[in-house]
Amino acid sequence: MNILIVFAHPERHSLNGALLDVAVTTLQAQGHKVQVSDLYAMHWKASIDRADFPDIPANERLRVSSASSREFAEGGLTDDVTAEQDKLRWADTVIFQFPLWWFAMPAILKGWVDRVYACGFAYGVGEHNDRRWGDRYGEGTMTGKRAMLIVTTGGWPEHYSARGINGPIDDLLFPINHGILFYPGFTVLPPFVAYRVDRLDNAGFDVLAEQLRERMRTLATTAPIPYRQQNGGDYQIPTMELKTGLEAPGTVGFDLHVALPPPK
Asked: The Flavodoxin-like fold domain covers which part of the protein (predicted)?
């Protein structure tokens, strides 16, 4: 299996760096091919601007979506962006690894998404009509590929529980899992989350590292998050509202977009 890890931490000699080594070593020992995009080491340009679309005339107003679509179709995107797109085409599984900063991914990783997910590549694909709203949310360019997050946080598991003050971790990661990964078609695996990492001692790291090794060994067999496909019949088109009666009583918010397990 070909595996791409997009790594976003400014210090390679860190807990995140050590976990990256654990993941890469374990995956390679299983016979997988691994590429790592270390965004800070690459000095990745995080902001999307006119420089990303070199063929746009100076007197033309920048419309990011249309400029992205045109440059992608004409092969005019910058070399750093096309190189990352090639890695995504190559990969069977993609892993985003990052520390949770202010309830989100680091800006450099969001900038990678903003620039690499060009219109015509990761969005704006497929047929749009009164019965179908494009290929997205379970369909699209990344269909058939798996993806997951490796996330570290200083907070306690209880802080990110259903009643925790930070909010449930699945809710905080929903915009990434459902929006950034599921939207272009990835099959999304449950995230690997490490808590209280600032207080981790050597014994705690050994336990955490073994847990991560097990997740890496089971990438191909781990059951994905059962998100509802946009074009699978659960949503009304064009409003994209979930049809009534499909959820368990009392289900609200993000949980509506996770399918119920089949009856036993």
From this structure: 1-214
Nearest-angstrom CA–CA distance, 137 and 250? 24
Residues in the chain: 264
pTM of the predicted model as reported, rounded to 2 decimal places:
0.92
pLDDT in tens, 29-76: 999 999 999 999 999 999 999 999 988 888 889 999 999 999 999 999
CATH class of 2-225: alpha beta
Question: Mean pLDDT for the chain?
Answer: 93
Domains in the chain: boundaries? 2-225
